[in-house]
């Protein structure tokens, strides 16, 4: 099932790379549109294969109902955003770069949702922040957008470091990088390393959701293109909640994290 983890991320990543090629700039919108039109068909195949395959906690694909529901939501949202962008971004001089970073960001989101491996999850998490940074700075002449991007850039690095340390502690405690297998080991009283990991995961979720007191930058993203603001509020911000739900077996046993 390893290949299933990379199918959707690969589709979006390849389309993003193609959109960024100078000789294909005029076709960037078309490439992105066909990519999001093909994604639902690909997702149906992935989920169908997952449903008929024996569950394996060491599989590369994160086979859970939560992950499946989030992938359905993201693929639908991707189609809506790209369809809307066809008209909203028409006439923009750097529209090819817009589609490039939009598709690469979607690739990172689907990698995070698909990966059962902690390092794959983390790489996707980092990729989301980096892709979003370039989208937020699409209009470099708008100071509020640049300020919001810089604030988020700093907070994102803190969240990523927190998550990486948490994953390292969980691996040290359980000797596995596989998320589903790791969660099946969580039971009873937590060790000190699990307690620290739970707190760090909670910090990462707090920053990703832009909750108080780290919410200031969120109100300044209105200067970014409207589809990006929609992507941020309807999708990426909610990944903090996805992180909490994914690690709920750990977090609900930690009084410090909750």
Question: What does this protein look like?
Answer:
By secondary structure, the chain is mainly α. The chain has one domain. Helix content is 71%, strand content 0%. It has eleven helices and no strands. Helix 2 packs antiparallel against helix 3 (65-88), helix 3 runs antiparallel to helix 9 and helix 5 runs antiparallel to helix 6 (143-174). The model has no long low-confidence stretch (mean pLDDT 87).
* DSSP helix fraction: over 70%
Report the total helices.
Answer: 11
Query: What is the 3D form?
Result: globular
Low-confidence stretches: none
Query: What's the order of the H and E elements?
Result: HHHHHHHHHHH
Content-based structural category = mainly alpha
Task: Name the features.
71% helix, 258 residues, mainly alpha, single chain, 11 helices
Topology:
Blueprint (H helix, E strand, L loop, with lengths): L1 H19 L7 H24 L13 H24 L6 H20 L3 H19 L6 H32 L4 H7 L6 H17 L17 H9 L4 H8 L1 H4 L7
């Amino acid at each position: 099932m390893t290949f299933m983890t990379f199918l959707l991320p690969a589709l979006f990543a390849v389309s993003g790379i193609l959109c960024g090629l100078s000789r294909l700039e005029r076709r960037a919108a078309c490439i992105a549109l066909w990519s999001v039109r093909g994604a639902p068909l690909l997702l149906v195949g992935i989920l169908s294969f997952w449903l008929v395959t024996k569950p394996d906690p060491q599989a590369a694909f994160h086979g859970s109902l939560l992950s499946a529901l989030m992938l359905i939501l993201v693929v639908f949202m991707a189609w809506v955003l790209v369809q809307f962008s066809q008209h909203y971004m028409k006439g923009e001089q750097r529209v090819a770069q817009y589609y490039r970073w939009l598709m690469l960001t979607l690739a990172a989101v689907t990698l995070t949702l698909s990966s059962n491996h902690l390092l794959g999850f983390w790489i996707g998490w980092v990729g989301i922040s980096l892709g979003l940074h370039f989208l937020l700075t699409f209009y470099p002449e708008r100071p509020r957008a640049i300020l919001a991007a810089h604030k988020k850039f700093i907070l994102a690095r803190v969240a990523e470091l927190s998550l990486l340390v948490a994953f390292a502690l969980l691996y040290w405690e359980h000797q596995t990088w596989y998320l589903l297998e790791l969660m099946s080991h969580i039971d009873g009283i937590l060790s000190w390393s699990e307690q620290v990991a739970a707190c760090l995961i909670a910090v990462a979720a707090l920053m990703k959701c832009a909750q108080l007191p780290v919410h200031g930058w969120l109100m300044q993203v209105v200067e970014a293109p409207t589809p990006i603001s929609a992507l941020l509020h309807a999708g990426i911000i909610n990944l903090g909640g996805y992180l909490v739900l994914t690690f709920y077996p750990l977090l609900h046993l930690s009084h410090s994290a909750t």
